[in-house]
From TrEMBL, chain A:
<keyword id="KW-0812">Transmembrane</keyword>
<keyword id="KW-0472">Membrane</keyword>
<feature type="domain" description="DUF1468">
    <location>
        <begin position="13"/>
        <end position="143"/>
    </location>
</feature>
<dbReference type="InterPro" id="IPR009936">
    <property type="entry name" value="DUF1468"/>
</dbReference>
<feature type="transmembrane region" description="Helical">
    <location>
        <begin position="97"/>
        <end position="114"/>
    </location>
</feature>
<keyword id="KW-0614">Plasmid</keyword>
<feature type="transmembrane region" description="Helical">
    <location>
        <begin position="12"/>
        <end position="34"/>
    </location>
</feature>
<feature type="transmembrane region" description="Helical">
    <location>
        <begin position="121"/>
        <end position="147"/>
    </location>
</feature>
<feature type="transmembrane region" description="Helical">
    <location>
        <begin position="46"/>
        <end position="67"/>
    </location>
</feature>
From TrEMBL, chain B:
<dbReference type="InterPro" id="IPR002823">
    <property type="entry name" value="DUF112_TM"/>
</dbReference>
<feature type="domain" description="DUF112">
    <location>
        <begin position="20"/>
        <end position="438"/>
    </location>
</feature>
<feature type="transmembrane region" description="Helical">
    <location>
        <begin position="144"/>
        <end position="162"/>
    </location>
</feature>
<feature type="transmembrane region" description="Helical">
    <location>
        <begin position="464"/>
        <end position="486"/>
    </location>
</feature>
<keyword id="KW-1133">Transmembrane helix</keyword>
<dbReference type="Pfam" id="PF01970">
    <property type="entry name" value="TctA"/>
</dbReference>
<protein>
    <submittedName>
        <fullName>TctA family tripartite tricarboxylate transporter protein</fullName>
    </submittedName>
</protein>
<feature type="transmembrane region" description="Helical">
    <location>
        <begin position="318"/>
        <end position="342"/>
    </location>
</feature>
<feature type="transmembrane region" description="Helical">
    <location>
        <begin position="200"/>
        <end position="220"/>
    </location>
</feature>
């Protein structure tokens, strides 16, 4: 008899719930549980994380019941370019200033699409930077320096 | 009549030029993001929250509410014209609306969607006005035990009504609750689950989490398959439904309004479920069920009325109890906090102008949507020709600015990226973000009321089943949970959700 491979989605999902549950259980125990009359900071999280572990086990169990289609492939290019974009904005908006940070963020994001070419990417990024600066800085008055301290003063 | 004097107060507040402008801005932005697939109301409101700092509380809430129900209108335009719901609640409209468009009746389908939405919106707004006050009176009697039970009921509903596996939805809910515990403990001041990172001492920012799981994850999903949009725009000739059409839509609109009004109040349900339920019922009561899927007019009128009614009545739990029925309304709670308003039963007593002004603005907004949308349909259609390549970098940039401007905090942008990735990957393995978000938002309130109740009643958990209101709520919660877990009902439920694909 050949063992059927478990359903991928449920297997990963159940495993994820159990691991996260364990991490939170570990964290809760370290916090002080208290009693039901005077609950400590760890009381409610401990209860929730144990419940999450149980749910995880249930999902894991169902993974061995039936196999369904594997999820579609990851959009790697999207993940690679989209996810760093907000990070880069957060890290550069003070140092470089609002305008350069916007440009870099937009420029990074445009490359998440496979059909984007360099000239179009530059054009789009410039347009977005100009638009956002006008709207957010001038019209809405967000208080960020347009050019930051990392740049040499002209 | 007290109701009329209240409504008069509301209309007086909502019809100042200033507030009318914000209402208009809200419904226009709402329609815009509703039309454009890939940007939801949750992410948009999250992005716009920071600019509401500078506005009057009433103006900002009128605008944000307008975005929410405006998106329901816009979403149907895209669903009808390109067979792709601009907003998830319009998924059902796409089934028959697109077929009508292919049969050369796109204009009629758009008109029917707008008429149905308006009728439903008017009725549901009236319901909100009638029931808000008495429900608020009940809510004022609530102690921590009742609040806790009510939230448990709400969370159970949100999982029962989520798409896909209930067990996974429960897991996502627990995950959301756990993530909401990150930060400083209210009672002891101890840091919880911050991993020693200072930036997490105040907890994870709601706006950042929402933008991540709803905005960024959605962009990633869309980048998977570059869609070709099959636009049916060549002839949106006549908008005017025939007399026969009118006869055919009365029933569906009435039923859709009723279903939507009830389901909208339930936490976790809202417009999406209302639309599905309405479609299922219309198909069942129709004497020509075979027409459904081939351009049945009832398949557009019913769900469109239902989703708009649901969008309106989902304000009832928010305005009376301070409990959000879905992630969009959770964002509105965020907006109220920014303005220093604690949502809940006290709002109607302490800020009657704000309370009734919002309600009145909903009707005005619905009127604006009908008057503006039908003539402007050509303009909205043009927007659909914006390629996604141009659209998503813009959304990215707005997300970054929006989140950063909440606290000028770079950590929040790390949260955006992390939750964007998590939302995307979890979505892939069949876990919906809505229960997570609701758990995340209700988590702190849930814990606080639990702890207060336990201290008050000496740690006796049976108290939730002894105090009458609390007991009823808990019983309901258990019943709903048991029902959804029963194999028979589960199959039915899966059938309903399957029709989306």
């Amino acid at each position: 008899m050949k063992a059927r491979s478990p359903d991928f989605s449920n297997f990963v999902c159940g495993g994820f719930f159990v691991i996260v549950g364990l991490l939170f259980t570990f964290g809760s125990v370290g916090l002080g549980i208290g009693t039901s009359v005077g609950m400590g900071p760890g009381y409610f999280p401990l209860f929730l994380s144990i419940a999450l572990i149980l749910i995880g086990i249930a999902v894991l169990g169902s993974a061995f019941g039936s196999a369904s289609a594997r999820p579609s492939a990851l959009a790697w290019r999207g993940v690679l370019f989209i996810l760093p974009a907000p990070l880069v904005f957060g890290l550069t908006v003070r140092g470089l200033g609002f305008v350069p940070a916007l440009f870099i963020t937009a420029f990074l994001a445009t490359f998440a699409s496979t059909t984007m070419r360099l000239p179009a990417a530059v054009l789009l990024s410039v347009a977005l930077t100009v638009f956002s600066t006008l709207v957010f800085s001038y019209v809405l008055g967000l208080p960020y320096a347009l050019f930051g301290s990392w740049l040499p003063r002209l | 009549m007290e109701l009329f004097s209240n409504l008069a107060t509301g209309f007086a507040a909502a019809t100042t030029l200033y507030n009318l402008l914000f209402c208009l801005a809200g419904v226009m932005i709402g329609t815009l993001i509703g039309v454009l697939p890939g940007i939801g109301a949750t992410a948009t409101i999250a992005i716009l929250l920071p600019i509401t700092y500078q506005l009057e509380p009433i103006s900002s809430l009128i605008m944000l509410a307008g975005i929410y129900y405006g998106a329901q209108y816009g979403g149907s335009t895209t669903a009808i014209l390109i067979n792709m719901p601009g907003e998830s609640s319009a998924a059902v409209t796409a089934i028959d609306g697109y077929q009508m468009a292919r049969n050369g009746r796109a204009g009629v389908a758009l008109a029917i969607a707008a008429i149905g939405s308006f009728v439903a919106g008017t009725f549901a707004t009236l319901l909100v006005a009638i029931f808000a006050k008495p429900l608020t009176a009940i809510a004022l009697e609530f102690g921590p035990a009742e609040y806790f039970s009510l939230m448990v009921l709400g969370l159970v509903f949100s999982t029962a009504l989520a798409h896909g596996s209930i067990v996974k939805a429960l897991g996502m809910l627990l995950l959301g609750l756990l993530l909401s515990m990150v930060g400083t403990d209210l009672y002891t001041g101890e840091y919880r689950f911050t991993l020693g990172i200072d930036g997490f001492a105040d907890g994870l920012e709601v706006v950042a989490v929402a933008v991540g799981v709803f905005g960024i994850a959605e962009i990633l999903r869309n980048l998977e398959n570059p869609t070709s949009r099959d636009l049916v725009t060549r002839h949106i000739s006549s908008l005017m439904p025939t007399r026969e059409d009118f006869r055919a839509i009365v029933g569906p609109i009435v039923r859709g309004t009723g279903i939507g009004s009830v389901l909208g109040i339930l936490p976790g349900g809202g417009p999406i479920l209302a639309a599905f339920a309405s479609y299922t019922i219309e198909k069942r009561v129709s004497n020509k069920p075979g027409d459904f899927g081939r351009g049945a007019i009832a398949g557009v009128a019913g769900p469109e009325s239902a989703n708009n009614a649901g969008a309106q009545t989902s304000f009832i739990p928010l305005l009376t109890l301070g409990i959000p029925a879905n992630p969009v309304l959770a964002m509105l709670i965020g907006a109220m906090f920014i303005q220093g308003i604690v949502p809940g039963p006290n709002v109607v007593v302490e800020q009657p102008t704000l309370f009734w002004g919002i309600i009145a603005s909903m009707w005005i907004g619905n009127l604006m949507l009908v008057v503006l949308n039908l003539p402007l349909v050509g303009m909205w259609v043009k927007l659909l020709s914006i390629p996604y390549n141009v659209l998503f970098p813009a959304v990215m940039v707005f997300c970054a600015i929006g989140v950063f401007s909440v606290h000028s905090n770079s950590y929040d942008l790390i949260v955006v990226s992390l939750f964007g990735l998590a939302g995307y990957l979890l979505g892939k393995i069949g876990c919906e973000p809505a229960p997570l978000m609701l758990g995340f938002i209700l988590g702190p309130m849930l814990e606080e009321n639990l702890r207060r109740a336990m201290t008050m009643y000496r740690g006796d958990p049976t108290i939730f089943f002894v105090r009458p209101i609390s007991a009823v709520l808990m019983m309901l919660a258990l019943m709903v949970l048991a029902l959804t877990l029963l194999p028979n009902i589960r199959r039915k439920r899966e059938e309903i959700f399957q029709e989306e694909d």
